[in-house]
Amino acid sequence: MVSDLSDLSRIESQKLRLDVKEVNLNQLIGSTLSDFSMTASEKNITLTYEPNPETVLIKADPSRMHEILANLIDNAIKYSPSGTSVTVGFVRSGDAAQIEVKDSGYGIPEEAKPHLFEKFYRINRSASEPKGTGLGLFVTRELIERQGGKIWFESQVGKGTTFYFTLPLSQKNGNK
Fold this sequence. Notes:
- The structure is a single chain.
- The model has no long low-confidence stretch (mean pLDDT 87).
- Helix 2 packs across helix 4 and helix 4 (62-78) runs antiparallel to helix 5.
- The protein is an alpha+beta fold.
- A hairpin with a 3-residue loop joins strand 6 (150-156) and strand 7 (160-168).
- The protein starts with a helix and ends in an 8-residue tail after the last strand.
- It has a five-stranded mixed sheet. Strands 1-3 form a two-stranded antiparallel sheet.
- Helix content is 32%, strand content 26%.
């Protein structure tokens, strides 16, 4: 929560700094997923990631990319019932990498979809659901967009949600 509020303050005051460099996407996803292996295991959720056979470099701030992935993976675990899976993957798409985080969770109701990336927005569900600030997806979107990417999602109630986002490929991938 403190991290989200700190990021919000820097975003709104235009003081958010990014240290953009070449980042190996396979390594970044692998290390971020390892941070969540215990949390997923405690909830009996399988984390799945098939590393891409080729080295894919993106232009991004590595710590902010870790924060983006951590938020999406954490949400996927939080909002998925025990015994399901969370899958992370990516593909090259033109001059960008498209990353996806897919869960088999509760899904997002239609009425909530237009508001999901709004500051402080929370879906009102049962009292037993995980608590949060309503800032995670707002901050995630801001961090992605400030690095030249975009984020969107697909969701069906009772079937789960997949978040997708893009970030530019590095020139070392043979792209401009």
